[in-house]
Amino acid sequence: MKLTLLDQLREQNPIVFNISNFVTVQDVANGLNALGASPIMSEEVAEAGEMVGLAGAVCLNLGAFTVPQVKQITAVGQLANQAHKPLVIDPVAVGAVAYRKQVATELLRTVHPDVIRGNAGEIAALAGLDWQAKGIDAGEGAGDLVTIAQTCAQKQRCVVILSGPTDVITDGTRTVQVENGTPLFQTHVGSGDMLSSIVGAFCAVEDDAFEAAQTACLVFAAIGQSVASSQDRMGSGTFIVKLLDALQFTTVAEIQAIANYH
Ligand SMILES: Nc1ncnc2c1ncn2[C@@H]1O[C@H](COP(=O)(O)OP(=O)(O)OP(=O)(O)O)[C@@H](O)[C@H]1O
Ligand SMILES: Cc1ncsc1CCO
Ligand SMILES: [Mg+2]
Prior knowledge:
By secondary structure, the chain is an alpha/beta fold. The protein has helices spanning 5-12, 25-35, 48-54, 67-82, 98-110, 120-127, 145-156, 191-205, 209-228, 236-249, 252-258, and strands spanning 15-19, 38-41, 57-61, 87-90, 115-119, 132-134, 137-140, 159-163, 167-170, 175-178.
């Protein structure tokens, strides 16, 4: 685990180009900014080339697209591949909505991500395995989460993050599990979107996507955990405000002190 990547990220302030969804765009922008990266968003295909050119990494969130936006998302993904910019895909609700799975599957035919980050329902869907997803949430299933993540990584030929109470990070062979976190993440819509964009920020400062992905998961989950433990009966409103503060101020040493992974 290369936790010092957090210091490098803060020094380098990499630009992360996000195709966000309209629900969580501000959380994504502010989460990246607080941590020490530089967010930029766009919905216009005419500027896709320039945007990719200035970005250190690109994150495609499939949370709420229209047909024209799918064209833009595909163009941005292809441009990122051509320019060898790290690419993260967040396949929101592909386990719950057949149309979304169809669009994501088509996208993955022409665009190759370095990292796919989703919850169990989303990753199981892209692995082709049985699971009962519930809307944007993970839902329920009987499968082993490590096997699901590894199957998805082998099928999609990229690093996969299956997030949840335990985050499973795998390249299909090597696997790391991050046990840090707090159930308060589930009370804030967009926690997963924030994580996906932060994975992009770490990919911008570390060429090995497996290293970048696991560090991003540990940093985000551990910071959330430290926020949750700072107050009794914390609610979702206070959590997101304090999470932004903590993304800005938490040090590598403070994360190291509570890091729980294997
Ligand atoms: N019950 C939990 N306990 C600890 N950490 C959790 C829990 N649930 C989620 N997390 C953490 O929340 C973050 C977001 O992951 P999650 O799997 O909830 O994403 P998501 O389902 O895509 O969320 P959203 O769709 O609301 O953006 C990760 O850092 C994960 O470790
Ligand atoms: C609630 C919701 N609906 C579409 S995207 C989104 C935010 C989680 O990604
Ligand atoms: Mg999500």
